[in-house]
Amino acid sequence: MLCFTLFFLMAHEICSAGEYKGYKLMATNIPIGTTQRHEWHPWVEYNSADDEFMVIWNTSGKIREDCVPGDDYECSYSFHDVIGQRVSPKGNLLGGQITISPVEGPNENVSWKSMARHAYNPFMNEYMVAFSRNRLPNNPGRTNLIEIVRMDHNGQNIWALGPLMDPTPYNASHPDIAFNSVDETWLVVYNDKIWRGQGLASDFDNVGYMLKENGNHLMGPFPIGLTVGSKFAPYLDYNPTNNTYLIAWEEWLYGPAGQPWFFRPSECYGALLRGDGVTIDNITIIDDFDTEDEGYQIAPCVIYNPDMNEFLILEGDSKPSLIGIPGNQGGIIGRIILADGTPKGPEFVAFDTTGRQGSVKGVYVPQEKRYFIVFEDGRDYIPPDPPPMYGGVSDIYAIWLKPDGKPVGKEIPIFVGEGHQTMPSVAYSPDSDSILIAWRDENAPGDFTPIPGGAEMAPEAKADVKGAILCR
User: Fold this and answer.
1) DSSP 8-state secondary structure symbol assigned to residue 127
2) Cβ-contact 29, 411 below 8 angstroms
3) Which is higher by pLDDT, 355 or 456?
4) What angle do CA 422, 423, 425 make, to 5 degrees?
């Protein structure tokens, strides 16, 4: 197993030496969240006032595994929490883990909580957190709401603002949140079925909510996107120059009438919104349906470039022209969208090599005038193992992209090890000129045994949150 430990305990001295040109991987396999419960969906944000990172994630699973008959409540249910951890620009853990989700009663503790994301408010030096929660114990697939929590820069003094009240909430999930530094407001986006019925095969919509700086309701819910397909996994970034948001999502648009949305081919669509939430334009980002090189576009991310005043959209794709073998084929496709919502040019291959690449996230680094992206990589997949992205062998890699979105230099192995490494997230510190990456490591043999038939097999799988630091 290749594992870049690289003197983790000496990360401070190495990073401050200033003798390297370019960024080097200084520490990896950092144990950000490594309890015996099951950690998943990490997300990283940068705190500019304190020059540190905040990583949040969801923790699931039983509380302990040493129960005796008559005292087995904590061993019999899967409990769920949203957890945080402060991390320094050198990769050192600051303080202990923080429980972000509100304290609940005994029965509510087993309500499903997932997909937490947060954003930072530099004026108040605090965060707003959004996550999906099912208030009915052990009923993960229905009546999910999006919960909002406001917390200070240390993750303490938590104010639970409660759920966003859709008219008919059904299965709200995949939230994303951004802070508007011009109007000092928040935009929360997610997908739900509030406008198009509640059947299992009915289509999802994108839902938007505008919140005041203190988290109180300002506007919404309102729909985002005009197409008739099912919209899934929205991702947004904010443009302070124009006071606009660009949102991209999976659009499951084509297929026979009555076919469940998740059996249709997926494309990548988007929308440009004003700072007050009004739609400026609806955008076809990538739609290759019924072409010779048709693929599925999955899990887009949006990266704003302040130097060019434009957005880079990246997503995992399965086009036949991409390198791979059947069952393990795919790469990262990109497209640049101008500030007014106009595509700058055609789609292009941002990165592709043997095996499947996906789950891409990235940041723009002004000092380099380049993008830094991280992704899940399945080049070491060997049939007949499960394909990467579905529980098979995969690792975390990174690469720099030029302003045109094309790769420059060689890919960087962030962590190459046993099992399935997935769900990477990344943030950049301009003050310390360092980059923190966090991901889910499903090679966690010491975790408690998952509860059979728990909330979902994915979050219930044994897993930890690991991290890596790059700096000069």
Assistant:
1) E
2) no
3) 355
4) 125
C-alpha span between 14 and 7 (Å, rounded): 9
**Winning range, highest mean pLDDT, from 61-75, 228-242, 319-333:** 228-242
Decide: residue 282, CB within 10 A, 0-12 exposed, 13-18 middle, 19+ buried. Answer: middle
CB of 307 closer than 8 Å to CB of 403: yes
Structural tokens at position 450: 């998952």
Q: What is the SS3 assignment for 189?
A: strand
State both tokens at 190: 């997610």
Instruction: State phi, psi for 458 to the nearest 5 degrees.
Output: -65, -55
3-state secondary structure at position 403: coil
28, 53, 392, 429 from 90: Cα distances, Å: 11, 10, 31, 10
| Three-class DSSP category at 123 | coil
Are 151 and 171 in contact by the 8 Å Cβ rule? The answer is: no
Q: How many helices (H) and strands (E) does the chain have?
A: 3, 30
Q: Considering the entire predicted model, what is its pTM?
A: 0.92
Residues facing 149 on adjacent strands: 129, 160
Instruction: Report in angstroms the alpha-carbon separations of 327 from 227, 255, 318, 383, 423.
Output: 30, 22, 10, 9, 20
**148: which 2 tokens?**
């909002």
- Residues linked to residue 274 through DSSP beta bridges, in sequence order: 244
Q: Which residues contact 127 (CB under 8 A, 6 or more apart)?
A: 45, 54, 118, 119, 120, 121, 150, 151, 152, 153, 155
Structure tokens at 51: 């020059």
Of 238, 122, 243, nearest in space to 183 by CA: 243
Q: pLDDT band at 207, cuts 50/70/90?
A: very high
Helix (H, G, I), strand (E, B) or coil at 316: strand
Q: Which amino acid is at 113?
A: K
Contacts of 440 (CB under 8 A, 6+ apart): 39, 40, 41, 42, 57, 421, 422, 423, 463, 464, 465, 466
148, 213 Cβ separation under 8 angstroms: no
CA neighbor of 461 nearest in space, from 381, 386, 361: 386
Q: What distance in Å separates the CA atoms of residue 314 and residue 330, rounded to the nearest whole number?
A: 13
Length of the chain: 472
| Rounded CA separation 302/244 (Å) | 13
Domains in the chain with CATH codes: 8-471 (2.120.10.10)
Rounded Cα distance between 25 and 374, Å, is 13
The letter for the amino acid at 31 is: P
Task: Write phi, then psi, for 429 (nearest 5 degrees).
Answer: -105, 110
Each residue's pLDDT tens digit, 125-145: 999 999 998 765 545 445 688
